[in-house]
């Protein structure tokens, strides 16, 4: 294990250069400078398995895994080979390709749904699901849990976050919120907006498991009130199971959205669901209004589809979900042991399922404190572990990754303890604090 802390001089220079050319310095705000401590890797040169190499030549362990899109590992040879094979056939073939049909067959068989529309980004498919629910029900309002942080960068969702600059006020009233695990809060919405809610859109779970009967209760409420139930499985897909959490919990939404890990980092997303709803986006009902559901030049180019098919096959053949849970359980147990040994149980708490573990980092008042949080992240990053608060576990994470992560974690805990004991994290911080990604003011 590296004893001394790493140098990030070139990473810092890289960050300054890219911010002059790219607003925010990244194409996803979650990857930006304000989301990481100053002492951390950037200008990543390459990735392999679970390791990345940064601008300074540091080899680091990745627990962010491309914001959960890299579900197997960076540069997985089989997935890359499937992409290479498809490249030689051309990638955008002017009319629907044979690969589009094969991909639809495999995807629908895996997700046990009737019809599918493919896309490149998660935001496109959640927005399409919203549009479809409005067309199907003739209603306008969308209900989402306030605890679920992100569904789309489109106006209907960003308008109700703190980062709603640039979005007309008129649009904000169409998205309303309830509380996850509180059925009554959703019941109240149905009372407040009778016959107006087009859909309830949510992730099946974030970190706190659903209370008994909660998901089934949502199903019932949607049925009683004529609203559609949409489960966004961007994060839970290929983590909770194959295809994801609806299967794990045994519930059946009307529409599902998938993306992220389904193509091991290649661009892929999908909207699936009941054919009587999905068919509204079709062209076979002559004389009916045409719904422009999802339509884009790169919607079904071959690279994403080939990567998705290869990823799905590997998940099915290699039993990757069990491996992910096994690895995650070992990590969870070891980290919990360290937290306990250090006596930090009140300030560092692991939450969620082994496949997707959140580390709650709390300050001296046992509340979220951005200075303390940044300090912990700084100490972890300085020992070569790329970690953004959630451990995205893949089948490629090794015992050695876990061992090195635990060493870094132990060292970070030591410093954190000092900060908690003295009530001062600021003096140990190098650089500015991390800030929430959804905020009103830069
Ligand atoms: C639950 C959820 N839905 C939708 C999205 C949007 O996906 P994308 O970034 O591919 O547009 C995300 C992305 O983080 C997500 O976590």
Instruction: Give me the CATH architecture of the largest domain, please.
Output: 3-Layer(aba) Sandwich
Strand content: 5-15%
CATH topology of the largest domain, by name, is: Aspartate Aminotransferase, domain 2
Based on CA atoms alone, the radius of gyration comes out at 22 Å
Summarize the structure.
The protein is α/β, with parallel strands linked by helices and 442 residues long. The protein is built from 15 helices and 14 strands.
Q: What do these coordinates show?
A:
The protein is of the alpha/beta class and about 450 residues long. It has two domains: about 10-75 and about 320-430, Aspartate Aminotransferase, domain 1 (Alpha-Beta Complex), CATH 3.90.1150.10; about 90-300, Aspartate Aminotransferase, domain 2. Helix content is about 40%, strand content about 15%. The protein contains 15 helices and 14 strands. It has helices at about 10-20, 65-70, 75-85, 100-110, 120-135, 155-160, 170, 185-190, 215-225, 245-250, 275-280, 300-320, 320-340, 370-380, 400-420; strands at about 45-50, 50-55, 60, 115-120, 140-145, 175-180, 195-200, 230, 255-260, 270-275, 350, 355-360, 385, 390. Strands 4-10-9-8-7-5-6 form a seven-stranded mixed beta sheet, sandwiched between helices. Strands 1-2-3-13 form a four-stranded mixed beta sheet. Helix 9 (about 215-225) links the parallel strand 7 (about 195-200) and strand 8. Helix 3 runs antiparallel to helix 12, helix 4 packs parallel to helix 12 and helix 14 runs antiparallel to helix 15 (about 400-420). The longest helix is centred in the C-terminal third of the chain and has 24 residues, at about 400-420. The protein is globular and about 70 Å long. The mean pLDDT is about 95. Pyridoxal-5'-phosphate binds near residues 126, 152 and 259.
